[in-house]
Amino acid sequence: MDISIRRYAPEDREAVVALALRAWEPGYAALERTLGTRTYERVVGDWRQAHSRDVREDLAAEEADVWVAVTDRVAGFVTVRLDRGERSGLVHMLGVDPDQQGRGVGSALTGFAVERIREEGMTLAVIRTGGDEAHAPARAVYEKAGFVPSPVVHYYRSL
């Protein structure tokens, strides 16, 4: 499959938001199973509305560089934020349309983002993802790209 990566354009916005919602749905379902519905509703709320807002904000943020992966359509996206003082780059968001997953799109976007971070003179690249089973494919992509995990655990308790 041919994958090209290009700068995000405003006309990509709705395709990117829609694929982001599809891509992250399994992660939110896993989180609900982990937390239980009561705690999940308290912690997460309407994730679709919040996530749609967050993706739109990242796409429009002046401090974020955004690229899209294109196959026969927009298949994924990545946003990168640089901290020049710390000489680090954060892969802030990365999403691949579920029907394009397992075809190299995530690996292409990850490698592309790391190269952009390096080209900007940064000496550290950071990416974050979930530790549940729904995020196992993402963790595999990031570890294959040379990232080393440093687990963080959040604890919640409904009262």
UniProtKB/TrEMBL annotation:
Domain N-acetyltransferase, residue spans: 3-159
InterPro entries, per database record: Acyl_CoA_acyltransferase, Bact_Acetyltransf, GNAT_dom
SUPFAM superfamilies: Acyl-CoA N-acyltransferases (Nat)
Keywords of the record: Acyltransferase, Transferase
Name this polypeptide is given: Ribosomal protein S18 acetylase RimI-like enzyme
